[in-house]
Design brief:
alpha+beta; 306 residues; 7-stranded mixed beta sheet; two-stranded antiparallel sheet; disordered C terminus; Double Stranded RNA Binding Domain; disordered N terminus; 37% helix
Length: 306
């Protein structure tokens, strides 16, 4: 099909790729390696009804908890450090930092205030071995289209649309994986806010880059344990999601930094996504006297992220 175009017009019949997401598809590989470096992304939410009791001086009253093992999610890259890390290793690290918000493990499991279910692992990313070839094909088709139109004021958009369709199919799969990671890591609120803007912002592009790279994560979901025992159903109190990029790092060293980064926000709500650079703080964890107190039976199913 040959289509005559007016000067300055753009006409791609059948183009089903959103321009916002096409920008991400065309990002060069060098940019996909950039972003926030080794910063830790923190998402924290709590139920409106969850209010910590305080003493007359305004200090938080202690609350007791027990851990429940969630699910380890493996990424697409083999990680021996992550595979060797046990649930006990992870909870030891978390317990030290939970204490900074006056959360303490208890041996009296039936009397615990909170049950904290822990998920950890690496995100999955969409890996398309033909991506670069499709981008090169699109660039070639665009070049042919532009030169033909410049010479004749007529241009056949068939090859260009075919390239866009192929790239659009891959982009749909990539976008679906990115949305899954956004929900898992707590990016969704901030990402949705940025998407209301007419054009992709620096913040949106940064989050998109991060969601399309493998990231280590730890997610803590805290439930009202007494309510669960009484009503036989879960009641979510707060969720803290911590993540950092895995390329160039290993889970054994990332875990202490992740746990430490959450120390100021466990049980609290943050207004959107926040970041802390790993080298901004000195991570020191002492666990000499800590003992694992065990897990509980009848663990609740994790609710879908919002």
């Amino acid at each position: 099909m040959t289509t005559t175009l007016r000067p300055g017009s753009v006409f791609f019949p059948g183009w089903r790729v959103s321009g916002r997401y096409l920008i991400l598809a065309l990002l060069p590989a060098t940019l996909l390696q950039a972003g926030w470096g080794d910063s830790i992304a923190i998402s924290a939410t709590s139920a409106p009804s969850y209010v910590r009791p305080t003493d007359p001086q305004g200090r938080l009253q202690p609350e007791t908890y027990v851990f429940a093992e969630g699910v380890r999610l493996g990424g697409g890259t083999a990680d021996r450090g992550q595979e060797a890390m046990t649930f006990g290793d992870i909870t030891k690290m978390l317990a030290v930092n939970l204490a900074k918000q006056e959360y303490y493990p208890t041996k009296d499991v039936p009397a615990a205030n909170i049950l904290i279910r822990v998920f950890w692992g690496s995100t999955l990313i969409y890996d398309d071995s033909r991506r670069q070839a499709e981008i090169e094909s699109l660039n070639a088709a665009l070049g042919t289209f532009s030169s033909t139109y410049a010479d004749t004021q007529n241009a056949d958009v068939g090859d260009l649309n075919a390239s866009l369709d192929r790239l659009g199919t891959a982009q749909t799969s990539q976008h679906a994986m990115m949305e899954r990671n956004a929900a898992l890591l707590g990016y969704r609120r901030s990402l949705d806010k940025e998407r209301t803007k007419a054009r992709p912002s620096t913040q949106e592009l940064t989050m998109s880059v991060e969601l399309n790279e493998e990231r280590y994560f730890v997610v803590l979901m805290a439930y009202d344990y007494q309510f669960m025992r009484r009503e036989k159903k879960p009641k979510l109190l707060w969720v803290t999601r911590l993540s950092m990029r895995s390329p160039g790092n290993n889970f054994t060293e990332a875990l202490p930094a992740l746990a430490f980064a959450g120390a100021d926000v466990y049980g609290k709500s943050l207004d959107g996504l926040q970041r802390v650079r790993v080298n901004d703080r000195e991570v020191e964890v002492k666990m000499e006297d800590f003992k694992v107190l065990g897990t509980v039976e009848n663990q609740p199913e994790a609710p879908k992220a919002k």
